[in-house]
């Protein structure tokens, strides 16, 4: 009996909702033409169809995700393999870099006068330039080279 009384109240409540919906529809459609009402109904049906389709899509996607299971041990093993491969590639790259840039060779300049060799080379170049008369040409070439390097550096930024 109690169950029947609850069902009766639910039906009464549902009937009130339906009555209010009918009243709202009547008041909204009083000033509208029949085509506008049919367009509105089609729009509502379309929205319902889209909602149903998106719900179905969501359900199918969630079912597929439930079917795909990842084994944690396999993922950890793959992560370890990737770490080892990365370490090996970094080690190989550092070995190649060491081969490209060998350690600097010590110069044979006398310890009493370090850098004497460089000074002598600069003096010899200046004397050679003065004797050849090509010092001005060398300076022009140097200026052109510097300008080229400045343009290249500004373009690469």
Describe the structure.
The protein has helices spanning 2-29, 34-67, 72-100, 116-132, 135-156. It is elongated, with a radius of gyration of 44 Å. The protein is 83% helix and 0% strand. The chain is mainly alpha-helical and 157 residues long. The protein has 5 helices and no strands.
Please sum up the structure shown.
With 157 residues, this protein is mainly α. It has five helices and no strands.
Notable features of this structure?
single chain; mainly alpha; 157 residues
The topology string of helices and strands comes to HHHHH
Shape: elongated
State the end-to-end distance. 86 Å
Number of helices: 5
Question: How much beta, percentage-wise?
Answer: under 5%
Oligomeric state of this protein = single chain
Helix content: over 70%
Class of secondary structure makeup: mainly alpha
The major pleated sheet works out as:
none
Question: Any idea what the radius of gyration is?
Answer: 44 Å
Low-confidence stretches: none
How many strands in all?
A: 0
Mean pLDDT: 75
